[in-house]
Structure formats: C-alpha cells, structure tokens
C-alpha cells in the first residue's frame, strides 16, 4: 500500500507532489467497478440506460435502482456507490424544488448541473469528508431546449454530451457509440440502440446476471420523465438480446 | 427526507412548556427553533395580522356525476369591488385524478397551489406509479388549513376538490379556511352556495346520479344565474372535468347574455 499514495491519499484536502488529489482518484475507482451506465441524446428524446448487475438472486427485480427522477422532466443515473447516488438524487431534487419555488418553472438542466456539481465538488475540498464515489448523468427534455445531457465526475467537473458512458465497460460503450449518429434517431430507434449497447458491452464471463433498466424523456413521453416504461423497455431488451445473438452467430461463421 | 421543502408543518404549541414539564415563569422558555413569523402564534404584546383578503376569487361550483366530476369558476379576480384581473384561471388540474377550484384570497390560492404542485412532483419522484387521490388531498388540505386557523393566521381560501378515487368512484368535496370539509354530489363556495346549490339540488333525481350531460347543462345554467345575480362574477368561466380518462380544463366559455329585459325593470 505504501507505494500508491505514499501518505498523500489520507485526506481530500491535500495535494500530492505531482498535483493530484488521491481521494478523487479512488472515488473514480469506485465508479469503474460499477455496472455500465450510458446516456444518449436523440432527435426528440434522451435516454439513460443502466446495466444493473444482480449480485444476489434474493433481491427483488426493482431493488437498488440506479435511475432517479429529479423533476417532472429531469432524470438522473449514477455509476458507483448506490447509497451515495440516493443521497445526491435527493440533493438534486431539493435544488430543483428550490428553483421552482423561486421562479415557478422547471430548472434548466444546465443550472441544475451547475448546482449539483458545486455540491459534489465541495466534498473534494475538506479532510473531514470523502468525495462521492459517483459518476452522475443528468438528462432532460423540453419543448424549447430539446434533449439535454450532462455528466458530473467525482471531482465535481461536468460536461455536456451527445452521448456518454460510465462504469465498467465505459470504453467499449464509447466505441459502440461512435458508430452511430444519435441526433438523427427517433425515439424507437434510440431505445433500440440503448438496449443494443448495454447488452453488447455486458461481460457474461465476469458478471452472469444483469437487468437492463432505462429512463426516458422526450416528446413521446409528453415531457414526463419515465423509468422503465413497459413497452419501450421491452423493445430495448429485445433489441439487445437480438444484437447479442447476431454477434454470436457472426463469431461462429468466422 | 423528501419533505425538507415543505415548510407547512411546524410545532403547534409554541410558547408553553414542553409536555410534562413546568412552565418557567421567571426565566422564559428556551426557544428551540426560530420559526418564520407567519407561522408563530401571537407574541407577548399581541400580533396584528391581516384578517381579510385583498384580491379575491368569487364562487366555485362543483358537481359530481356518474362518471366523474366537474368544477366551474369564472375567470375574474377582484380587488375589492373592482373587476381587476379578468382572465385568471381558478380551476386547476392537479394530476390525472384530481382537479381543484379555488375561491377566496387569490394569493393564498396561488401559495397553496405551489405547495400542492411540489407534492405531485415528489409523488412522481418515487416512480412507483402511485399518484395522490382527491380524498387524500382534501384530507391533507383540512390539516394545513386547520393548523393555520389554530395559529390565528388562516389561509383565506375556500376550495373545491374533485376527482376519481382508486376504485374509480367520483369524489367531490369542499374544504374551507377553517379546515372544515364535507363531501356531496354538489358543493359550492361563495355566492354559488346561495344561488347555485338549490338549483342543482332541485334537479337531482332521487334514484340515481347525474349524467355527464345533465351536469354540464347544470353548470352552464348555474354560471348564467351567478353572472346575473352576483356582482363579483364575470361572463367568462372555465370548467374542469375529471373522469376515467383523465383531467381536462374546458373553456373559457361565455355566458349567453341577454339584457333586453333590463329596459322593463323599474323602480330602483
């Protein structure tokens, strides 16, 4: 152990001589262990999809969900520690509620992202706290601004994306994403793509069971954020399973 | 945890000793929590609060029928006897099974509406498909309003809550500024209680509920009578409808005016 942090990793309030804050790096490690999460932005909707790895057969199917509803039209998905996710989801809801109370309208996603990232960042500054072991993806859709997608890292920095991924198979997911132009896809096509990506990047050898979960908001959901809507989720799962079958038969032909 | 943004609920017993303890006459009581002024009871020298409404909405009329409820209110918000704001909706869709009509102080209506809207978003955040039902909302409203009247600081509102219950039965109720509440097939606030209520009751068949057509026709008729006889009414109104297929707000509709008889009235 003495070789990795060499004493500079005990507190989030101290830099290492080469300019890193080790506690943040470790938080990122917690994110990398988590099941994959993706967010993709289509023509008139945005989708968050999660590879929820089932660690015990005794859990109920909807247990330990990693997609949250923050506002009418805002959803959030996390990779990393689920308990941290629950807490930050509540912070996000309070920020959204606070904005609504002041301005009587839904918070623009950029503003929400700004507030939540400031909160996440504050936890990288003090020795008494640890950073959140989270990569947070926020998504929203409305008539004026269309689909919006942001990701907050454990460090508190955030960026807007057309498509983004976090967790175990982040790299594979990004490679998959670069193959399509999501901004041209309609809701149905985008839902299928979400299923395909999550099913393709799932590593059967390392983690046997997983549950595909998704959140969607767009013109087809009337701007209401929905988690696992029956028809669309089934569509994504089917598309994912088919994609896997095709890949397998392709392998055999070679 | 989610209830952090709801500032409505606060301890009722403010200045007395904690239950089971003696009152400390000399030392004063320890203030455990600094409350916003509007929620505290009267101070040692008394507190004068506004005890009347400023901008007001007049009547709200609700009728329950066999497949749902209808709530109607005109679009006027008065400033005293001045017809100040003439295009303000006073019937609101709350969610897919609740509509709400508000009379009384319009600022208080807007305030309570904000709180209710936030509750609906909380409901949605749970993502369990469970939404609030009208009976639950009116029960909650009685608690909030009774609490405020107990602090001598009531919300000056008179609301009609209607909608569809879990089992599909229509529900219609009235909650007033003291937290009093009742359910019936017809409820009304303001002048409609005097003018519209008897008209509706007169036409109620003994053996069955109203049909949607009957309810709609009665609303039209009552809004006309209210327009003619209540000076705080306007010729324009909206009707909220809640049935099995959801909630809608119809209108604004116009009362069909006819003033030809006016020339025959003498002696005023």
UniProtKB/TrEMBL annotation, chain A:
The keyword Lipoprotein does not apply. It is found in: Cytoplasm; Nucleus. This is Proteasome subunit alpha type. Residues 8-30 form the Proteasome alpha-type subunits domain. SUPFAM superfamilies: N-terminal nucleophile aminohydrolases (Ntn hydrolases) (SSF56235). PANTHER family: PROTEASOME SUBUNIT ALPHA/BETA (PTHR11599). It comes from the Eukaryota. Transmembrane segments: none annotated. The 20S proteasome core is composed of 28 subunits that are arranged in four stacked rings, resulting in a barrel-shaped structure. The two end rings are each formed by seven alpha subunits, and the two central rings are each formed by seven beta subunits. Its main location: cytoplasm. Pfam families: Proteasome (PF00227), Proteasome_A_N (PF10584).
UniProtKB/TrEMBL annotation, chain B:
GO terms for biological process: centrosome cycle; proteolysis involved in protein catabolic process. SUPFAM superfamilies: N-terminal nucleophile aminohydrolases (Ntn hydrolases). The keyword Hydrolase does not apply. Keywords: Cytoplasm, Nucleus, Proteasome. GO terms for cellular component: cytoplasm; nucleus; proteasome core complex, beta-subunit complex. The keyword Lyase does not apply. It comes from the Eukaryota. It is found in: Cytoplasm; Nucleus. Belongs to the peptidase T1B family. Non-catalytic component of the proteasome, a multicatalytic proteinase complex which is characterized by its ability to cleave peptides with Arg, Phe, Tyr, Leu, and Glu adjacent to the leaving group at neutral or slightly basic pH. The proteasome has an ATP-dependent proteolytic activity. The 26S proteasome consists of a 20S proteasome core and two 19S regulatory subunits. The 20S proteasome core is composed of 28 subunits that are arranged in four stacked rings, resulting in a barrel-shaped structure. The two end rings are each formed by seven alpha subunits, and the two central rings are each formed by seven beta subunits. The catalytic chamber with the active sites is on the inside of the barrel. This is Proteasome subunit beta. The gene is Dper\GL22187.
